[in-house]
Fold each of these.
Amino acid sequence: MEFLTGVKEKETIEIRQLLEGDYQGKVVKMKGAVHNIRDMGDVAFVILRKAQGLIQCVCEKGKTDFSLKDLKEESAVEVMGVVVSEKRAPQGFELRLKSIRILSEPFQALPLAINKWKMNTSLETKLALRPVSLRNVRERAKFKIQEGIVRGFREFLFDQGFTEIRTPKIVSRGAEGGANVFKLNYFNQKAELGQSPQFYKQTMVGVYDRVFEAAPVFRAEKHNTTRHLNEYISLDFEMGYIDGFEDVMAMETGFLQYTMELLRQDYKKELEILDVKLPVIEKIPQVRFDKAKELAAEKYSRKIRNPFDLEPEEELLIGRYFKEEYDSDFVFVTHYPSKKRPFYAMDDPEDSRFTLSFDLLYKGLEITTGGQRIHEYPVILEKMEKRNMDPADIRDYLMIFQYGMPPHGGLGIGLERLTMKLLDEQNVRETTLFPRDVTRLAP
């Protein structure tokens, strides 16, 4: 009888071990993909690609027991060689190879030059060949930084006493309402893909006080713009016992401060690859919705056309205004009109035409929507009645208010949009692993 006792210790080592240990002059084994081959005659360089980066391997005639004629780019290999310091190499060291063992080979040549610093191809081609294009060093760096954003979100909220939850994505009714839902036949019942975890995260505030989730949401919008997706990752949190919606904005500010510092410390290599300059976030200005529109209109001579919402051009101008006036890439726009916010948004007690809600703009693009929620049963019923909504349609959600809820609020952050603006990309598909939009369902 054989038993498994835990993770098996391997003969091969990883980049992290080489960087942390004293391996100078020692023989090691390493596995990876052949990223590039540069044959210079008596000497050849074989660059291995691993999750942590690139490794430079040196093949010298008469010292390496292998013929380069048998080696193809993208082959999976195991190499054995001596570790030698080399400042010009990607990790500060190289392997002087003794042997190469091929583990697998590609069936055909690559359709993209993924070993180039820039692939010099269109976004459409990169997306159509996504399983291959993601192997490029710069493409990989984008999504390591995105990993850091999610990691920062999780670590910061854990430290603030939040509980991570998992909510269903097949639902009986969308939280936001409207026509932009994907409808499903769920065993002969009508169902939808969730537009937001809103109902469920509010429910869980009654259980854990503070909750968060990083998960996909779905919007059946027929937009085909550089800022819209039909499936994206939403970083959601909801917190109870708040004194006002400002508590929610303060929590997001703390998350952003924590995450930028995490990226500086642990993702320096990826930031350098993409030449990213992280924003310094000491404080974030806030401005009322109506005042923000006036400021942009006055400074940039733009007529206010829609008094109830911000148009994309207005968001850009508001972002530009606060960058010029306060040197801030971020601005909280607060007190959105009630008619443009969901029924669960709490109205401003001083002026019910507006809500205790906000958007966070980053470089002129909305990346967050949040605010304080109604928590009293009679109040939410009254607002639903004004909107001609039937309480029976969401009776399970309304149950939480029947049996008591604390004052609470929360937000949702668009992960891909935040990454896009952080990396100064022009299209949200550049920072989406496998985008889903009105024309793309594969790969």
Amino acid sequence: MKNKAKKELAVCGFEAVKALAKIHPEKINRLYFDESHKFDFGEICRTLASRKAPYNIVKDAAELEKLCGSVHHQGVVAMIAQPEIMPLTKEITVEWLHKKESALILDRVGNANNLGAIVRSAAFFGMKNIVIPMAEQQASVTTSSYRIAQGGMEFVNIYSIYSIPKLLQAMKGKMVSFGTDLKAKKQVSEIAGLCKSKPALIVLGNEEHGISKDVRENCDELVIIPFAGMGKNMAASVESLNVAQAASVILYEWAACLR
């Protein structure tokens, strides 16, 4: 939930706030928690006290719900400045190439919970960079995406970009790009072999329509997660996964490059 007057965002959920307090305590402006967590946040309370920032034990759960706009606060809410998504620059992509870092590109993933789940998987598998388009259909960082990420927000960098096709074009020959497509000939198990010598750009598409036509046409490779009956003229009960589930499968295959 945003506090537009103070330009703040509420971060709730025990794991999300615990990771925030450990990795980026400087981001927390105010902290509220119930009695059950009074021994969990001692260090961050001392840090907040040293800079005269408020923290409070809240006795009424309704107050926490009001702060974050959710019943899923798990007894703790931290207020931070509204996150600003950094624009992706040439200097950043040069750094990726220097460090051989890959990136995950989200092509209009519109559900904030899906974004949070993707961030969680990215952090788990070691994908540090996520790129989202500056499009109305694209979900951004919200209270719910922070909570669903279960602390993963502290371990990824999220960048914004005007045009995904232009990024793919600019990185041709420097990084290998993969898009997901139900008509693809290659399977996700081939990703590791295809990106052994170059870092990867992995594109995930919109929940309903997948990756857009212009993005698809600029990918080096299209891959599919094989489903039951694929190639055997058998009908599958479900032919595609939720984008967040697909992200986990694809990132698992990509992570083989790091092993």
